[in-house]
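User: I'm designing a mutation panel for DUF5594 domain-containing protein and want to avoid disrupting the core. Could you give me a predicted structure to guide residue selection? Please restate the sequence first so the numbering is unambiguous.

Assistant: Good idea. Sequence first, for numbering, then the predicted structure tokens:
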Amino acid sequence: MNREQALRFETEFVPRIAESVTRQIGRGLRIDIVPNEHPCAPTRLHITAPPHDNGERARQYPFDLNVFLTWDDDEIVRLLRPDGEARFQRYLDSLAAKFAAWEGARDVDFVTRSQAEPSVLFGGLDFEA
């Protein structure tokens, strides 16, 4: 993926992913877009939040939410093709199910804003619905 493609992904798609994450996981999140710096440091979405404790639910895990999302370069290039917008919309619509699956796979609990490890990377993601 070249720099122009990375910039297009960062400006056209990642903000929409961030908006969808906020809708799917809820308010109180801090979501930062970390720009592509070089091939070893791709565009990342950094999701953090203080623990959510409404008195009914204890924290699930010992660490505050600190999750990074990155996407596979080839998947990003495919997304930038003419048919990419429809594919991307299906991806956004499927994020709730993806987050539910990721929770169990990586010991993250988005409800209590906690996780088992200090930092979690969901890397090499695709745009399949």
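For picking mutation sites, this is relevant: The helical segments are 3-25, 73-79, 84-106. The chain has one domain: 3-125.
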